[in-house]
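Hey, sorry to bother you again with one of my protein questions. I've been puzzling over a protein and I'd love to understand its fold better. Take your time with it, there's no hurry, and the full record follows here:
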Amino acid sequence: MPSENLLSSVQQHLGPDTIQQISEAIGADPSATNSAISMALPALIGGLSHNASQPQGAAALDQALDAHDGSILGNLGGILGGGGGGGIGGAILGHIFGSKRPDVETGVSRASGLNAGQVAQLLMMLAPIVMGALGRMKRQGGVDASNLPHVLQQSSGGFDLNNILNAGESVLGNLFGNR
């Protein structure tokens, strides 16, 4: 069982220079971007955890990780400077959130102060990074369909995607304000 936490792994790659680059790409203040990232990452991991909680979801995610070897983590400038990974990021978000994607974007927007368009761009940048980190964990730490649910639940810090989708517009502010 891998001991590395996915959220910590992703955060290691999001230093001040990277956050500055993301901020410039989405047209936002670095402080607001950092705040939005601190909300968006648990939402992404929570969405993955929700999907992997069913055996068929875990198997599908395990199979998808075959295309994410973690190499993106060594070239974040490429994805951040090259349009934010909109194509692959958008596709990943579609798999993670499905029809709930606008609700997640709105929740992060309301809680962070970024507009919905900026949050959409941010999520499209972060999704391939999260998948890359998880793919690297699969290759290096033995993550597979059988333990993906546990790894994701542990990494999400107990964040439940249903909280964001069911509790209304102030859920993110309440959730993260109480930490």
Remarks:
- Residues 6-173 form one domain.
- Confidence is low (pLDDT under 50) at residues 167-179.
